[in-house]
């Protein structure tokens, strides 16, 4: 089972994560996960302590599977279009509201510039975080690499 876990972890680091960065949901680990599950389910505990450990391992496997599914779903999911419309309408309303103030030109430009800079920064941040696994500003496989280096290196 350790070899199966080691193989899965190397696959995620070396093959799956680069595909995720391109927006492709990797499918190569399905057999690896199924093999590990079959091995785990096929184990027959002989003692009470083995039974307790087996039960805990099955619960951890279910948690792993849910997190894996959520990660793979996040590769293609994004912020809904209605939220983008809300952000755009909110930005336009803020700028229109600013135009209603009766201020001197210099103060108006300064206040408008600060508000526009803030809105542009906020919209840029939302756009960068819209696809958490894509591009250079994405989630990295550092956690998998750390677990591999500390616990799994042969």
Give the arrangement of secondary structure elements.
Elements: H1 2-21, H2 30-42, H3 48-76, H4 81-99, H5 105-129, H6 142-152
Helix pairs in contact: 1-2, 1-6, 4-5
Describe the structure.
Helices cover 76% and strands 0% of the residues. It has 154 residues and is mostly helical. The chain has 6 helices and no strands. The longest helix has 29 residues, at 48-76.
Q: Number of folding domains?
A: 2
Number of helices: 6
Looking at the structure, what is the overall shape?
Answer: elongated
Relative helix content: over 70%
Record field, number of beta strands: 0
Radius of gyration (Å): 24 Å
**What fraction of the residues are assigned to beta strands by DSSP?**
under 5%
Summarize the structure.
The chain is mainly α and 154 residues long. The protein is built from 6 helices and no strands.
Tags for this model:
154 residues, mainly alpha, 2 domains, 76% helix, 0% strand
